[in-house]
Design brief:
Elements lengths: L13 H4 L8 H18 L5 H6 L7 H4 L1 E5 L7 E6 H9 L9 E16 L2 E15 L7 E18 L2 E16 L6 H6 L1
Parallel strand pairs: 1-6
Antiparallel strand pairs: 1-2, 3-4, 4-5, 5-6
Length: 191
Amino acid sequence: MFSLFTRKASSVPAERAEETPKRISFEDYLAITEVRFEIGKGWRRSWLPSFWHDWEFVISFSHSNDFLQVDYSIVGHSKIEDMPMSEFVAMMSSPKFLGDPLVRTQHLMGASKYERVSDTEVIGHHQIRAAHQRYTGPDRLTVENRGHGHSFIKHWYQKVDGAWKLSGLCPQVYWNEHDFEKIFVQLKAEH
């Protein structure tokens, strides 16, 4: 019987066997998926000042536990290999970005693929749809603009003291719906 979804390990040519990324264990998959869920859940609360303090438990600091690898160049920020946590929080929580009280967002993460770099490092490749709305006032009764992104995001994960944490991120937008460029109007004015 022919199946599109199953393949015997012996059917992979020897020259391609070395190209196959190393898989993560089921336990690591569950732990990293929990971190990924908390990250996605957290974006919707990003305008709350307490959010950024609460979110620190899912973030690791690579390179001697002080920095995060961040590439948000798609929305006007620089790619930074070693971003201190304080700068990351300041960038993300800025009233010009996700801390804008007139902006609400929810990031839904779809299919994921993980590749093990080492016992303490994993790269996650995730589909993501990020819905954004900008309101006319703080009562959030009238939507001024909508902008939804269909993207792919790369997450770097690091195991720190036995727990998986986010250690870097880099989104790549495939396309946007509606008026995404009108969501972060203060940020856009700077660039």
